[in-house]
Design brief:
By secondary structure, the protein is an alpha+beta fold. A 10-stranded antiparallel β-barrel has the order 3-4-5-7-8-9-10-11-12-13. Helix 2 runs antiparallel to helix 3 and helix 3 packs parallel to helix 5.
Length: 422
């Protein structure tokens, strides 16, 4: 069958060639260069049709010139263009162009054979594309499955909000409930205080307790709050060598004024038997401090940052008129700080304050007083609306005097409670 088609096609080509030669011999009026120009123009039109991938344009060219003596040249050129498409694996238009050739010449066996080849190649290409698409879809499904697992895990551990753009954003721990207010309270079960005074070479170690709390309310990132603190240290359990008992005896005897008659009559030996001296020798003074300071600042995703101003009191109760350590000071205090800054599972807070009236000589025995405190908090137990924390704090209060410096440095271990708001 195929051989018959091929023989018939060869016969048709031969007929056309013979007719073209006869016409040229008979008429003798169509120069060869005119034929070349005419065919070249048709070639350009075929090029444009292939460039535009237009079946209609190609069909118009071939059907219009189907009866031309040069039609076989157009067929050959078209098939050449089709073969180039096959090489470039553009099987879709190659098949469409090939059908146009067949439609205009059903006896063109080369075009029929080419159609079979192109159709097979196109089918194979589609199969390969289907395989690649199936692999791509499988990979996408795997990625989506992983995302779904992560979203499920995030939904269990975090709360989410939807942004105005429609995006889902995870904002906080699922165990925590968002609220505009935040509070915490800490009880210092161990307050180790080292007091040093450089002028008299005084140094003592004391144990004490501490209470501390704060409250914050956030409105559109604006933060309002208040911090409170109270500390007391008991009499020294260890006192290093320096100006202590004997030196204090001399100093206090000179300063001791309740009874001039006793002082003039009895002297040092009798003074050493009085309650005032016994207290002084044992250093039974009780250093204390407290403050209540409102604050104003802003809250961010990681921590709150603020300035604060309030009132502070630092003192030393000893029952004596004279002591090496600084006396009482009640003063406005101003400072800066931050709190709830998360570094992994640890939360940090830091405050620095200056006591304003410490610079007023008629009120203060110091030239300047300032305090710094830092706290590190670690959660140890969580409940529905609150959690317990373990806290380690470092505090320091420094007194700048006319001669020397007094420093009160503390390390505090505390158990705390706070709500779970962020």
């Amino acid at each position: 069958m195929r051989k018959a088609f091929r023989m018939k096609g060869m016969v048709n080509k031969l007929k056309r060639t013979v007719l073209a030669l006869c016409a040229a011999l008979v008429t003798g009026v169509l120069p060869s260069f005119a034929i070349d120009a005419y065919v070249a123009n048709l070639y350009r039109e075929i090029d444009i049709a292939f460039l535009n991938k237009s079946e209609a344009e190609l069909n118009h060219i071939l059907s219009t010139n189907a009866d031309s003596l040069n039609y076989y040249l157009l067929e050959n050129y078209t098939m050449k263009k089709i073969r180039h498409l096959v090489i470039d694996e553009d099987y879709e238009f190659a098949l469409q162009a090939n059908l146009v050739v067949i439609d205009n010449d059903l006896n063109y066996t080369d075009a029929v054979e080419m159609y079979t080849i192109i159709a097979g190649a196109l089918e194979k290409k589609k199969e390969q594309e289907q395989i690649r698409e199936a692999k791509r879809q499988a990979e996408l499904a795997k990625i989506e499955e992983e995302k779904a697992k992560k979203r499920a895990a995030a939904d269990k551990e975090f709360n989410a909000v939807v942004t105005p753009e429609g995006k889902k954003v995870y904002i906080q721990d699922k165990k925590e409930v968002y609220t505009a207010s935040y509070w915490n309270f800490r009880f210092g079960i161990a307050d180790l205080n080292n007091i040093m005074e450089t002028k008299n070479n005084y140094s003592s170690w004391r144990y004490g307790i501490a209470l501390e709390g704060n409250y914050e309310y956030t409105f559109n990132k604006l933060l309002l709050g208040i911090d409170g603190n109270f500390e007391i240290n008991f009499p020294a359990f260890f006192q290093e060598e320096g100006k202590t008992s004997k030196d204090l005896e001399e100093a206090w005897f000179e300063k001791w004024t309740p009874s001039e008659e006793f002082r003039n009559t009895h002297g040092h030996d009798d003074y050493m038997k009085t309650d005032d001296f016994l207290k002084a020798e044992a250093d039974e003074s009780l250093p204390m401090n407290m403050f209540l300071i409102p604050k104003l600042g802003f809250s961010s995703r990681n921590g709150s940052y603020y300035a604060r101003a309030g009132f502070a009191w630092v003192g030393n109760w000893s029952g004596l008129d004279y002591h090496i350590m600084s006396g009482h000071l009640f003063s406005p205090a101003m400072g800066l700080g931050f709190d709830r800054l998360k570094l992994g599972f640890v939360t940090l807070g830091l405050n620095a304050d200056f006591y304003i009236t410490s610079m007023i000589k008629s009120i203060s025995s110091s030239n300047a007083v300032a305090g710094v405190e830092m706290n590190m908090s670690v959660p140890i137990s969580a409940m529905q609306k609150a959690r317990l924390t373990f806290n380690m704090g470092v505090k320091d209060t420094i007194f700048v005097k006319d001669e020397g410096v007094e420093n009160r440095a503390r390390v505090i271990l505390a158990i705390g409670a706070e709500n779970v708001a962020k």
